[in-house]
Amino acid sequence: MIQLPVYSFQVTFLLLSAVMLTRYFLLAGMFRIVCERSRKEPIDKGTISSRQIKRDIYWSVQSSLIFALAGTVLIKLWQAGETQIYYDFQQYGLWYLVFSLGIYLFIHDTYFYWTHRLLHVYQFKKCHFVHHESRIPTAWTSFSFHPIEAVIQALILPVLVILIPIHWTVLVSFLVIMSLCGLLNHLGFDFYPTFLEKKFSLISATHHQRHHKQVTVNYGLYFTFWDKLMKTEAGETHG
């Protein structure tokens, strides 16, 4: 059984802030280097200014601290026994491990689609425009949110772990997928095969970059089915 060290709220927040900031700079920096050295053609050949990169990093640091705060709350709830996070693989059966991951991804994608779409309607200029200032997104853009939007997106995970049982290893897998999808969607390069989007409705960098260009289309995070269902998808997405 995993036992997290018990620290004060403040110390836990500081430690998690260091983890979140390291995650951002390490992953975004690594993926940016991979993109620059890749032989693939970028989706958009426009110029990305140093000013955009600095702005994205500025907002991403703030977002990382907000995500760290949400993570601190989650850890404290976990340590207090107030969550549905469990340790025994057999508690709900092995089949539930895959099922619970699918449920978390579906609910999070649904939450993201609708909150994202609402931000375009009610708080675009005051809040969500921060993210859209980067018309040609890069890996540095992946966590570039106004603090209000960062809070909105951070709220869902503590709610999920309070309501829906999940094994701690599946929770870690979910967090990894969440981080990687946020990065891959903003790279400006498509790295995975076309059939994953066409056959499994996975969102590609091309799909999300079209959202940065056309603004009122392609709102999803993991999957394209909400965009298809609500007729907010911008036609062909790859290429």
TrEMBL record:
Membrane-spanning residues: 12-35, 56-75, 95-114, 150-168
Biological process, per Gene Ontology: lipid biosynthetic process
InterPro entries: Fatty_acid_hydroxylase, Sterol_Desaturase_Related
Localization (cell): Membrane
Superkingdom, taxonomy of origin: Bacteria
Single Gene Ontology MF annotation: iron ion binding
Signal sequence interval, chain numbering: none
Gene Ontology CC annotations of this record: membrane
UniProt keywords, alphabetically: Membrane, Transmembrane, Transmembrane helix
Residue span(s) of domain Fatty acid hydroxylase: 103-232
PANTHER family assigned to the protein according to its UniProt record, in alphabetical order: STEROL DESATURASE
Name of the protein in question: Sterol desaturase family protein
